[in-house]
Amino acid sequence: MTIAQAVRTPEFDAQEPAPAGPPAIEVLGADKVFSTGVRALTPIDLTVNQGEFVTLLGPSGCGKSTLLKMVANLIEPTSGGLMWWGRDYGHVGEEGKKLVFVFQDPTLMPWSRVRGNVRLPLDLAGVPKAEGNARVDRALAMVGLEKFDSSYPRQLSGGMQMRVSIARALVTEPNLLLMDEPFGALDEITRNKLDQDLLDLWFERKLTVVFVTHSIYESVFLSTRVVVMAARPGRVLREVVIDEPYPRDDAWRVSQRFAAYARDLQVLLAEASVSGAAHE
Amino acid sequence: MALDPNNRTLAVLLPVLVGILVLVVWHGAVWYWQVPKYLVPSPILVAETLVDQWSLLFASLLVTLKVTFMAFFLAVVIGTLIAFAFAQSKFIEMSFFPYAVLLQVTPVVAIAPLIIIWVKEPTAALVVCATIVALFPIISNTILGLRSVNPGLLNLFRMNRATRLQELVRLRIPSAAPYFFGGLRISSGLALIGAVVAEFVAGTGGTSAGLAYQILQAGFQLDIPLLFAALFLITLTGVALFLIMVTLSKLALGDWHESELVPET
Ligand SMILES: Nc1ncnc2c1ncn2[C@@H]1O[C@H](COP(=O)(O)OP(=O)(O)OP(=O)(O)O)[C@@H](O)[C@H]1O
Ligand SMILES: [Mg+2]
């Protein structure tokens, strides 16, 4: 039995319809060749529907960050294009079409207190102080940092700094969250906790999330759909729908079905690195 | 507390002890070898001269301080403006930075006579010389600071559609602050050095005689105790300037910048 056959377990039904909701993001044959000549991505087709939690899972260098940055309009595709809520990027930012990017590092201003850091996007947009402060309070409550609003970033742990970064993203009341390995630098216990909190937030506030990760377990725990990518050249290998109702909690983490999904993704990733090597 | 290197009291006490020790050894050596006072005066004699000649020395100190502070002020204002202009565009920096370096590498002693000829008013001439000396660290440090912005934060600002002014005020200036204060520290010392060196070259006496002039005169007249007393005042001024700058940057940055942090134990 080949590896390719091995992964065709019942859970793997790429034909399964994606969760309802109009498309938030459409990647239409977009590829990327950097000026250095590196081909980071072959043409990608991917649709993220409103209300989905999609993770991009793949080995280092497969172009996950590149794809996410294209979705954030931080870099332009070499050819092909993207659509945001069915239109071009010019309309992003309107009501119901707000997008934020959460970096791998907390990326906080060290000279500014937690409140100032979280309020930054509102200050830049000219939101009045009083209204801004009320929204900051709500965002800080969402990440459980109400008591730390007047601390400096250096006085917080790595996990707390990451929460500040997420609060800063939430304060703009976004519809779409783009997260590039946001918890990659944290220990497992902290990471699990933040994953749970993020998931609850996504569920309660009906957000759409595109989440980059190296971790199979994180992707199975969080996603409605995992997009498995392979390197050299960067491409989408398979999309796997994680068919498990929400809200999810630790019981899901230790369930049989969770383990089955994790094993299948493990096999797929092994295939990804084999087929990647074949291209070299 | 034992011998904790972070102890504040020790940080003051130890240098003071060293100072007293040096004075005692100095006095002992002068007394023991009967060194004549026109070579090395004893610290007590220097102190006596300081008191006796106080009105003369104090007037000169004020002149030197005036030149130093005016030059320092001008250097900060002009240097910051130049740095902001340079930071606005790579092309402006490319075109003018070599000339800023020229300013830095030309010894002030070499250009002072020229400036003294061009600028008739003696105090103004000294201020110009000292400003030239003090200018460069402000320019180079401020530029470095304005450019050393965390790229992630810059992305964040751009994604939030920040205007150039917002980017400057909320990101570049705070990022530059620690570098700027580093520049202030160096520049304040250089302003004093510039003021003294320029006065040596100018050699103006009368009402505008600064400490350098007193040193020159004392040297001619072999009044070594007076020379030492003037020297002592210059050193004291330098130390005071340094301490003021350190305190200033602590006040401005103490809350957040890592270079100002004392590790908590
Ligand atoms: N700005 C750039 N200029 C040139 N090449 C780049 C640039 N950014 C990324 N690359 C290249 O593109 C490829 C994909 O990079 P990317 O950062 O998207 O990978 P990734 O999947 O996010 O990897 P990781 O998991 O390690 O973060 C890599 O080979 C990388 O070297
Ligand atoms: Mg990456």
TrEMBL record, chain A:
Taxonomic lineage: Bacteria, Pseudomonadati, Pseudomonadota, Alphaproteobacteria, Hyphomicrobiales
Keyword Transport: yes
Record keywords, A-Z: ATP-binding, Nucleotide-binding, Transport
Family to which this protein belongs: Belongs to the ABC transporter superfamily.
Any Pfam family the entry gives: ABC_tran
Alphabetical list of PROSITE patterns matching this protein: ABC_TRANSPORTER_1, ABC_TRANSPORTER_2
InterPro entries: AAA+_ATPase, ABC_transporter-like_ATP-bd, ABC_transporter-like_CS, ABC_transporter_ATP-bind, P-loop_NTPase
Organism: Rhodoplanes tepidamans
Domain ABC transporter: residue ranges: 25-258
Official protein name in the record: ABC transporter ATP-binding protein
Gene Ontology MF: a single term: ATP binding
Region (Disordered): 1-20
TrEMBL record, chain B:
Record membrane topology: Multi-pass membrane protein
Protein location: Cell membrane
Domain of life of the organism encoding this protein: Bacteria
CDD domains registered for this protein in UniProt: TM_PBP2
ABC transmembrane type-1 domain segment(s): 61-245
Keywords: Cell membrane, Membrane, Transmembrane, Transmembrane helix, Transport
Main location: membrane
Residue stretches spanning the membrane: 12-34, 54-87, 99-119, 125-146, 190-213, 225-248
InterPro entries in UniProt: MetI-like (IPR000515), MetI-like_sf (IPR035906)
Family the entry assigns: Belongs to the binding-protein-dependent transport system permease family.
Descriptive protein name: ABC transporter permease
Native source species: Rhodoplanes tepidamans (Rhodoplanes cryptolactis)
